[in-house]
Amino acid sequence: MRQAKAAIPYDQFAVQFTDIAGTASLGIWYVNPELDPLPSAEELQAQMQQARVSAAEVSARVNAAVSCSPRPYDVINPIVVDRRYQGWLSAQIEPAHLPPGPEFTEEQIASAAERFFVGYARTALEHPYVAGACDWPDARERLQSHFSLDRENVAFYFVIDDLGSHVWVQWDGSADPIMSTVNIGNVLLALECFSPNADIIYVIVDDHGVAQQMGVVPQGDTSRLTIVYP
């Protein structure tokens, strides 16, 4: 995880390793400040391609930085947002489809950008968003205060997309009902100042990154908490 984090050339990012249903994924969320949050219709597709290329480059950098062989993950999942946290791309790519590095040509990166399996690509010119009393960097810091920095497979990130706004939270630990209730409560406490419209998606993994539980708390309302995995 440390090698992966050190290879990311952006200031705001999160990295998480998650094995769900036998597929091991290295998730890389980052803010690309070069993407215009308010593109014109003409600019949308050009910036979408820019997001794909940057995702390919970040994936290649991270993959080359991970020294262990074979790689512990089956796919890399880059998640690209702009400085307003609007989602541009969420995709997967297999390590074999990335150039070996450590240096890459533009042609190699462009080729890798075409090998993504795209789960989400931005289509709307703007997404509505209700802000809270604190912004995402503040909320992330509040979330981190509940988890030791020594726990490397803990991650927090925020995405606004066609389906709404979502805070993703992953931590390693027990999925025991008592412990999960305590941790979810801490997450909700940390996000009290954040957007009231944001849904919270949480993943609990064990020491090896294997998903034990995944749930959704719509707009922080625990009465509507739904466990979606397993």
Structure characterization notes:
A five-stranded mixed sheet has the order 1-2-3-4-5, with helices on one face. It has a five-stranded mixed sheet with strand order 6-7-8-9-10, covered by helices on one side. The chain has two domains: 120 residues, no CATH class; 94 residues, GMP Synthetase, Chain A, domain 3 (2-Layer Sandwich). It has five helices and ten strands. The mean pLDDT is 96. It is globular and about 50 Å long. Helix 2 packs across helix 3. The two termini are 25 Å apart. The chain is α+β, with helices and mostly antiparallel strands.
In short:
The protein contains five helices and ten strands. By secondary structure, it is α+β, with helices and mostly antiparallel strands.
What distinguishing features does this structure have?
single chain; 230 residues; alpha+beta; GMP Synthetase, Chain A, domain 3; 2 domains; five-stranded mixed β-sheet; 5 helices; 10 strands; globular
* Class per helix and strand makeup: alpha+beta
Which residues form runs of ≥5 with pLDDT under 50? none
**Contiguous helical run count:** 5
Gap between N and C termini: 25 Å
Write the layout of secondary structure elements.
Layout: H1 2-6, E1 13-20, E2 23-31, H2 41-65, E3 75-81, E4 87-92, H3 106-113, E5 117-121, H4 136-144, E6 155-161, E7 164-172, H5 177-190, E8 199-205, E9 211-217, E10 226-229
Parallel strand pairs: 2-3, 7-8
Antiparallel strand pairs: 1-2, 3-4, 4-5, 6-7, 8-9, 9-10
Helix pairs in contact: 2-3
